[in-house]
Design goal:
This protein is α+β, with helices and mostly antiparallel strands. It has 2 domains: about 1-215, Peroxisomal Thiolase, Chain A, domain 1; about 220-365, Peroxisomal Thiolase, Chain A, domain 1 (3-Layer(aba) Sandwich). It has helices spanning about 20-30, 35-40, 40-45, 55-60, 65-90, 120-125, 145-160, 185-195, 255-270, 290-300, 305-315, 325-335, and strands at about 1-10, 15, 50-55, 105-110, 135-140, 165-175, 195-205, 220-230, 235-240, 245-250, 280-285, 345-350, 355-365. The strands form 3 sheets. It has a 9-stranded mixed beta sheet with strand order 5-4-6-7-1-8-13-12-11, with helices on both faces. The protein has a two-stranded antiparallel sheet with strand order 2-3. A two-stranded antiparallel ribbon has the order 9-10. The longest helix is centred in the N-terminal third of the chain and has 24 residues, at about 65-90. The chain starts with a strand and ends with a strand.
Length: about 375
């Protein structure tokens, strides 16, 4: 068992309203105006008001090589990850006392929007006074499911070493993968959904000497479950081209919620002797409006169980792996304000593979 103790955010500097992005796309995709015009309603129907990016409109309109995009990714990913870590370890809203950098035993670094060797967790060691014997676990290629998967793998490690502390950093700079030359439906739909964001999440083992730095109300992870559907690798991911990472985004994704995700959820509940009525929170990655609506159908929900997922989608868009951490942060802040003893939750995300990750959580005062 491990405690999810704190979450810090790294917010990119450029803020664009959805209408601004929509108008920008009309300016960029001038070679196929009829197709672009036909797809523009996607921007209006996405339930997204604004997003944040590491680049401005001028940069997006210009041509950039894959090398230039990736160099920008490495620079900004390190900068925003450090900001998210600082915020996480010194978060006065979620911690009773700061956690020192030297206390971190494991860094899980999750990203799918750029490439770096050594992986960016090594870069982070040079930016703050982490110990040189810290364990590094870089996870790449997990896409939107990466936040949940990174958290699950860190939890499993903490369960083996309950005196330890783990830090999960999810860093996605989706704007740097934008392809000006790609007028495919996937690229335009992706442009209507994806934003940039970074989150750092702290897991503390039950026997850690830093346990008394946490709030009295704690969120624990009880169980995890992974599922990957065979022969579904063409649903979501990247084509790696000379121009960079080109998005694969199937229109089948919402429908897979009614099949793959539904079966995974109900099997997971049954395996853990739970029913839907036992779950007080669904900490769901907001892949998009249609995905959330399909989830609500599966859950027979009219109780605003996905309210925070909708809020994050509206304010930030889909930031791939980092998004579920933004949702989780809202649940943590809510728990710090009111009694949520014995309330269980499920943290969930879907991603390339096509895959589903589930974590059973519980708020406790123990």
């Amino acid at each position: 068992m491990g405690y999810i103790a704190s979450i810090g955010l790294g917010i990119p500097p450029f803020h664009l309203e959805q209408n601004e992005v929509k108008n920008l796309i009309k300016d960029v995709f001038t070679t196929s105006p009829h197709k672009t015009q036909k797809l523009l309603p996607v921007f209006d129907n996405a339930k997204i008001n604004s997003r944040q990016f590491v680049v401005d409109e001028k940069w997006i309109k210009q041509d950039h090589t894959f090398a230039e995009k990736n160099a920008k990714y490495i620079h900004d990913a390190v900068d925003l990850s450090v900001k998210a870590i600082d915020h996480c370890l010194k978060n006065v809203s979620l911690l009773q006392a700061n956690i020192p950098y030297e206390a971190v035993d494991l860094i899980v670094f999750v990203s799918s929007t750029g490439i770096a060797t050594p992986s960016l967790d090594a870069h982070l060691l040079n930016e703050r006074p982490f110990r040189e014997d810290v364990i590094r676990m870089p996870l790449w290629g997990l896409g939107c499911a990466g936040g949940a998967m990174g958290l699950a793998r860190a939890y499993e490690w903490i369960r083996l070493f309950p005196e330890k502390i783990a830090l999960v950093v999810c860093c996605e700079l989706c704007s740097l993968t934008f392809q000006k030359q790609d007028t495919s439906t996937s690229n335009i739909v992706g442009t209507a959904l994806f934003g940039d964001g970074v989150a750092a999440t702290l897991l503390v083992g039950t026997d850690s000497p830093y346990r008394d730095h946490l709030l009295p109300m704690k969120l624990v992870i009880r169980k995890t479950s992974s599922f990957t559907k065979k022969n579904s690798i063409n649903v979501m991911g990247w084509n790696v081209t000379a121009n960079g990472l080109e998005v694969i985004f199937s229109k089948r994704i919402p429908k897979l919620v009614k099949s793959l995700w539904k079966d995974h959820i109900f099997n997971f509940l049954e395996e853990n002797n739970q029913s839907l009525s036992d779950i007080g929170a669904f900490i769901a990655h907001p892949g998009g409006r249609k995905v959330l609506e399909e989830m609500e159908e599966v859950l027979f929900s009219n109780q605003n169980l996905l309210n925070y997922s909708y809020q994050v989608l509206q304010k930030h868009g889909n930031m791939s792996s980092a998004t579920v951490m933004y949702v989780l942060r809202k649940w943590l802040l809510e728990a710090s304000k009111q009694s949520l003893h014995k309330k269980k939750g499920i943290l969930c995300a879907l991603g390339p593979g096509f895959s589903s990750e589930l974590l059973l959580t519980e708020w406790t005062g123990e």
